[in-house]
Every structure is written in C-alpha cells, then in structure tokens.
Amino acid sequence: MRLGLRVGPTALREQPVVKPNIDCVTMVGMSLVPKADKKQDWARRGAELRLREIDQERSEIFAEFPELRGATKTRTMSPEARKRMSAGMRKYWLKRKSKLKVPGKNKSIPTT
User: Fold this and answer.
1) Which portions of the chain are predicted below pLDDT 70?
2) For the chain, domain boundaries
3) What is the sign of the dihedral through the CA atoms of 93, 99, 105 and 110?
4) How far apart are CA 97 and CA 90, in angstroms?
C-alpha cells in the first residue's frame, strides 16, 4: 500500500531548508531563543508600530467626534478662588490641630 510519500535521498533534497539568522538567536536546548539585544529591538519596533496605530485610531475618533478635541483642557483657579481655598484650609487645619491637643501635655511626644 502506497501513501504517496517519497522515501530516499530525493525526499530530503526537496524539503525547503530554513537557516536561522545566527546573529539574532542562540540555541537553548532544542529551541532557538532571540538574543537580548534583538528582543529589545523587536520590542521597540512593536512599540513604534502600536503608537502609529494609536495615532491613527485617535485621528479616526476625532474625525467622528470633533467636539472631543477640546475636552482635555486643564482648569485654572482664579486668584480669588485660590485665596478662599487657602483660608478654608487654614481654618480646617486649625480646627483639626485643636482637637489633637491634650491639656497639660507637651506638644512633642517622647520616643521612648
């Protein structure tokens, strides 16, 4: 019974031979492992590709929803609001410190 498989020296010659790039891999056991510097290079290339994809996605989102372009503004406080906030925090901390004080005791606590 013949299955169509070639046996003999011609079968070996017809198989494609793939030679690894010795500069980028090392042999560990029976598998090829990328060298560390090539891993870093591949990671950098992958990161660059992903950043390009993110930029493309961002452009598509802004094209679909143009009102989102100005959504990343930072808020700023007016000088009056900053003064009110400062006065409120001073009042808060004075109240908090007065609750922590114990009559007749020193302000510093010994560390023994």
Assistant:
1) 1-35, 71-73, 102-112
2) 23-67
3) negative
4) 11
